[in-house]
Structure formats: C-alpha cells, structure tokens
Amino acid sequence: MDCLVIYVPTEAAHAVRQAIGEAGAGRLGNYSHCSFSLEGTGRFTPLPGANPTIGAVNSPEEVPETRIEATYPRSRRNAVVDAALSAHPYETPAFMTFPVDASLPDRTGSGD
Question: Which residues contact 106 (CB under 8 A, 6 or more apart)?
C-alpha cells in the first residue's frame, strides 16, 4: 500500500478528492473515497517561464491550501497520480507518494 499527499488550493480540494477516489485511492474495507485533509497556507514565487494559475511572475504569493492524504494499492499508483494531476489547477502541483505499512501490529504479548 502507498500513500499520496498533495497540496491543493482549497477551492479545488473536493474535485481532487473525487478524482483520486474514482482512480482507486481511499478504499478501506467496505468504504471508498477515504482521505484526510488539513487546511494551511501555501507559499510560492513564480519564476520567469512559469504560467501561474494564481499570482504573477516574481511576485511572492500565499494561498489557502488543503493537504489531502489518501492510501491506495501500489498497483493503482499511476492512475491515482494521473487523476490527481489532471484535477489539480496548478501548473506544477506539490505532491509526494510513499509506501506505508497498514498491517496490524502483532498483538501477542507475554502471558497471552
């Protein structure tokens, strides 16, 4: 199992959550579209050659953003990342993927 973390302008968060859910992220048992979100502030300065969705070249920008986290089967990685990038409004979205261990710990202890 892997995890996607992506930073999205808050007004686009719902669309990105829906897109990654449809691509297979957030499936936990009999539940789909499971994710965690946290509000924050994204900061960036578009450099020459950029085509910013928000802001202007060489002008620092602060934007209300949502951090979205969702797990997915490793076999769905390309589909989930492609869906996230397609639904994201930024030219170059900030995201990361990494493996996670979602297994339950051994619950056997001394005396059991």
Answer: none
